Amino acid sequence: MKNDSGKLLRFTVPERVNHWLVALTFFLMALSGLVFFQPLYYPLNQLFGGGTWARILHPFFGVAMIFLFGGMFFRFWKVSLMTAADKEWLRHLREIANGDERNLPEAGKLNGGQKLMFWSLVTCMALLILSGIVIWRAYFSFLFPAVVVRFAAVLHAAAGVVMIALIMGHIYIAIWTRESIGAMLYGRVRRAWAKQHHPAWYREMTGGDK
């Protein structure tokens, strides 16, 4: 695909809107969930009008997240499929952390780390959905034995903690990699940035320009 503008289109408007709505919903879901995770976080209930409302709203934030994250899944699952080059890219994580990208295999639109993040988040979402249904007292909990509800509560908390950690890592890396946040805000990146970080995608977008 040839792009004649000075910059390359990395994310379309629908992709960016979808991403930021997921981000907003994630924070609502995480903050309302933390209220019941540890007493230290209980004061967060004031953001939602008190503990009762936090408990009522949390699962509905989750429902909104299912639809919004589902939208992201169907937009990005094909481009997130792991290739041999992505697995090789992941073997160079220590070099990447040290700022050495000389021996990296060429990345496409998403690199191996971004794809691993995507599938890790998908796994967490699947666990949160399944366990969340089981522990949703207003509608479903009475359908399951108590031992299943208790196990689901532990699984739900564990998946939530992992997902929060992954998102914090995602935010840190986005700040660390210049232009990443700009790409998700404005959609476009400089050609030099694309050529450095995603050379295979750069060639695809420029029709093979070096």
TrEMBL record:
Keywords: Cell membrane, Electron transport, Heme, Iron, Membrane, Metal-binding, Transmembrane, Transmembrane helix, Transport. Residues 10-185 form the Cytochrome b561 bacterial/Ni-hydrogenase domain. Pfam families: Ni_hydr_CYTB. InterPro entries: Cyt_b561_bac/Ni-Hgenase (IPR011577), Di-haem_cyt_TM (IPR016174), FDH_cytochrome_b556_subunit (IPR051817), Formate_DH_gsu (IPR006471). The keyword Iron applies. It is found in: Cell membrane. GO terms for biological process: anaerobic respiration; formate oxidation; respiratory electron transport chain. One of its GO terms (molecular function) is electron transfer activity. The keyword Cell membrane applies. GO terms for cellular component: formate dehydrogenase complex; plasma membrane. It is a multi-pass membrane protein. Coiled coil: none annotated. Its main location: membrane. The chain crosses the membrane at residues 20-44, 56-77, 116-139, 151-175. Its cofactor is heme. Belongs to the formate dehydrogenase gamma subunit family. This is Formate dehydrogenase subunit gamma. It comes from Geoanaerobacter pelophilus. The lineage of its organism: Bacteria, Pseudomonadati, Thermodesulfobacteriota, Desulfuromonadia, Geobacterales.
